[in-house]
Please model this.
Amino acid sequence: MRLINRHPSRPVRLALGALPFALAIGAYAIGSAIRRAENPQDKLLPSLASMGEAMWQMGFVADRRSGELLLWSDTLASLERLAIGIAIAAVLAVVFGALIGILPIGRALFAPFVAAFSLIPPITILPILFIVLGLGEAAKVGLVAIGTTPLMIRALAQGVLDIPREEIVKAQTLGASTWQIAMRVVFPQLWPKLITAIRLGLVPAWIFLISAEAIAATDGLGYRIFLVRRYLAMDVILPYVVWITLLAYLIDRGLALASRRMFGWAHLSGDAL
Amino acid sequence: MSFVEAQRIFVTYGDAPILERVDLSVDEGALVTVVGASGCGKSTFLRILLGQERPTAGEIRIDGMPLAGEPDAGRGVVFQKYSVFPHLTVLGNLMLPAEFEGSRFLGRLFGARRQAAREAAEAMMEKIGLAHARDRYPAQLSGGMQQRLAIGQALLKRPRILLLDEPFGALDPGTRRDMQAMLLDLWRETGMTVFMVTHDIQEAFHLGTRLLVFDKIRHDPQFPAAYGATITYDIPLKGRHAPDPGPEDPMTAASPAGILPLAAGQSEIERGDEPDA
Model:
């Protein structure tokens, strides 16, 4: 049988999927063991056990200075900024995406501006945000929102334009006004696309969140990583990176699942990741 | 006086003429089938009747009134695809027209009015034979069922004109025959005027009370896009609202005498008028 027609069974598929992870962890463990054999004090590739120990300290032993469980307070602070930033971006994306997608006048008015705005590297706006908004939460949330909004507006505007013209015409022949077309034809079909847009927006959102926290924050996952960098504390940095990755993965899968649950009609045909 | 009247319709996309000098007058209750080669402008003509596009020149009147510049509830439409709403079930699709009419802001009905809309939707569901698929989404329906739903949805507004753009083009022959029979039944029942674009010449002869052929009357072999198309044959078929004579040889319905060589004759004259193009 041709290779192209060979489909792995479920256990084989799971094993194949786990293989690269196991190889990466194994390679790390070997590398770490070699370095520590030469120098037991090696900081660059700490053992899995010492990383576990460091994470235990971060997650379950109260910090001596603040009395907080740092892993959880960092996670909460970061997720809060991420959620508020994404929520602002989502609201703006729905409003402007719909205006651009539904109304030719809205497209003429906003599409060029959004296209130009989306080309500004958001990180260059960060100093402006710090100057205007101060070093508080608003600047960090603002960076996440600014970094994701143009992308999400364009994704949603395209999502509206992807609704077949025939549907819009048909709705008009059924007596619908522009507003009714928006309410009953466009928006209901836009919600699953909003979830997809959020999943896309989360990728830059994490980058801008960590960047903002690295520059000016007193808590958060990005703040912690850049703080302990001064002590070469790879035993904290590496697990934090894994933890951030895991959070990002879980949020992405959660959104994908929510879309399937809430908008089953949108997932009736075709494969999706 | 005729119901649908088109006078000297011209359509040009950029430099390319699509339709030239289309004149037509159609009586109320006719079932007009439209055939022609791909790209001959027959779908463009349908979109103009719909109000989705405007002619570059010329005028269309319906019942004496100039055609509205946009689609409205006076003219129903069924396209080959995408004529129903994928996020609504069969019931939801059929309730939508009543919800548009009854709720200007939300487009949703509640309570007794919702119940009334549901009953009207269920009656239509019976008529188009989709009662068993009440809660299914369009993606879960076969092509024929989707088109039945699209026609039923369009008819709920009781349009005086129904425009069909290759509605059965993607269906298998058996389903297509069933759909043709259903269309004839609904047409006789409602007395509406139907314009149907089709690629299937048999279908055009079998269904229509009148057959229009769109084609180019002038050809420039060096520049095929130089001229637009017009109605080259206008063939009266069976009488209006005549009972279906059943499966017959479609060709016997149109005697050679019925073919009006009018457009072809016109083209000869016009060719003489035309400065060298």
User: Anything to note?
Assistant: The mean pLDDT of chain A is 92.
